[in-house]
Amino acid sequence: MVAYTEQLCRHIGRYRKxxxxxxxxxxxxxxxxxxxxxxxxxEQIVYALKAxxxxxxxxEATIEVNPGTVDGEKLKAxxxxxxxxxxxxxxxxxxxxxKTMGRIHNKKEALAALDMAQKAGFKKINGxxxxxxxxxxxxxxKSSVEELVKLGLTHISVYSxxxxxxxxxxxxxxxxxxxxxxxxxxxxxxxxxxxxxPEHGLRHYEISNFAKPGEEAxxxxxxxxxxxxxxxxxxxxxxxxxxRRTGPLTMAAYLAGGKQDIEKLTSDIQLEECIFMxxxxxxxxxxxxxKERFGVDFKKKYSKEVTxxxxxxLVEWTENGNVxxxxxxxxxxxxxxxxxxx
Length: 342
What we know:
By secondary structure, the protein is α/β, with parallel strands linked by helices.
């Protein structure tokens, strides 16, 4: 971890501006489990960012943590470093499910971590849950969601399980060691979540995310609004608006100073990605902004695609026909919409 931290700090130190950095630019430590890093390593990275002018007066600074890798002192240290939002990978509040998922924490530890985070001064706490996992039932998902709400969390992310080919989970399912809930049960889980959370003050502002007004994850909004960002670390991605730069994908390659892979994005790809990301949010896409940004008459270019989605009640026009957004059904079956524009 020391060698990785040193290389990461060198990477930050060598950064040459490829675009201006807003003093209020958000900060996000994640894409893994940064809470496994020794505190001294984490401090070193934060100081490197500040020394380079990349951490100034962030609108929000977030760190992802695994409940099984933090304690009160570590959480206080995160807060003192300037992190003001914490994203906790809880996944479930049932020990049997957590064991099946291969998580290193149990329910007691998850609840303790949430309590310690609040005592450490974190007011913005995001709890992540998964539904549709082998062994889950509608009642177990209900109780996990209800308990997080009772704890007063202002932001909850709920992800539907996606089984990736070649993973141990895919292998266990194929061999019959684990069985997925049937589609009807997964549908019932989804229906409960999207009804219950808004009823308790958490707005469904993005396909997988719910927040109380004003508590939306500011850093994630950068992605969904298709704005530029910088990334440092193994496999980290930077996006300038016209190109995407991806760092070395393995530890060995990263430590060896491997070069970034640079993908030039055509105007068509930029447009498609902007539509895809914008439609993920409840605010949808403003076609006047699309025209200003890409010089495209959206209604003319995508008349057929939009009509097909409207007939299936997947999208709707708002704001006097200037904004296209997903319907409640579209939020559930977003991929049906996205593939029309990709």
